[in-house]
Amino acid sequence: FWEMVYVDKGVLQIKTSKSEFSLPQGECYFHKPNEFHIHKADGVTAPNVFVISFVCRSESMKFFKYKQIKVPAKIKTLISNIISEGQKTYELPFNNPDLKELRLLPDSIAGGQQMIRTYLEQFLIMLLRHETASAKNKIFASRDLMLENLANKMRQKLDTFAYKNITVEEFCAEMQYSKVYLSKVFMQNFGCTINEYINNVKISEAKRLIREREYNFTQISDMLCYSDPLYFSKVFRRVTGMSPSEYKKSVKKS
Predict the structure, then answer these.
(1) pLDDT of residue 140
(2) Which among 194, 135, 145, 200 is positioned nearest to 170, based on CA atoms?
(3) Which of 6, 43, 125, 192 fits a 20 to 30 Å CA distance from 80?
(4) For 14, which DSSP code?
């Protein structure tokens, strides 16, 4: 089987029988079938990593052999779709590196397995097309790159907003672009609104704080600049599908 690894945040160190290299944020690497490899963190930052193994006998897969590719923002959403379908289809224990096999959920979503395969096929085809684009598309690629760089700059800035109380209007003013323009660029690249992303950043940090069990829900709500604990709980449920209390029960104390 093939194995693709994608780094969403941080840096991953990869060692194969032929080389040793770093895989930075936003890039993916394809291990060909039976290729020896080791993945590890750099000892400084804990990376967020997505790994998927799959069987594909298409001749086109030869293109991905030993390939390290920067994934375009517009294609990254397909990885999120695979993860979302996987969580609704299989039992995926929290942070379990010893998972040996995928087991269907008793109430798995209809067509989940097919959707995972469909999204993966789309991802591979679109990535192949992007990497093999002809010279005549360079003008359009240059424009796309400019917009992608702007979107990534927005995302990097928004990633620091967990403990800030800032409106979308204030953020756009800081970026010195109109709200309409930035909202369009962000949606096209990441598939969500700026406000939704800010809430995702805050809830991701809330999950970390809950796992560490140092603060109660009211304190976490205040720290993350929510107007009140009830609204924090409402947003937490909307983003994660469970209440803060339910999430706390679902994870083990380290």
Answers:
(1) 63
(2) 194
(3) 43
(4) E
Q: Considering only the C-alpha atoms of the chain, give the largest distance between any 2 of them, rounded to a whole number of Å.
A: 57
Task: Please return the burial class of 29, using the count of CB atoms within 10 Å of its CB with bins 0-12, 13-18 and 19+.
Answer: buried
Q: Which pLDDT tens digit goes with each residue over 100-112?
A: 778 899 999 999 9
Token pair 């010893």 in the structure block, residue: 98
Q: Is 191 helix (H, G, I), strand (E, B) or coil?
A: coil
| Alpha-carbon 252 to chain mean position | 23
More confident residue, 136 or 89: 89
State the Cα–Cα distance between residues 93 and 233, nearest whole angstrom: 23
Shortest CA distance to 27 belongs to which of 61, 73, 63, 65? 73
pLDDT, tens digit, 9 for 90 and up, residues 135-154: 456 666 667 778 888 889 99
Distance CA 19, CA 1 (A): 20
Question: By the 8 A CB rule, do 52 and 120 touch?
Answer: yes
Q: Which amino acid is at 224?
A: L
Contact 23, 38 (CB under 8 A): no
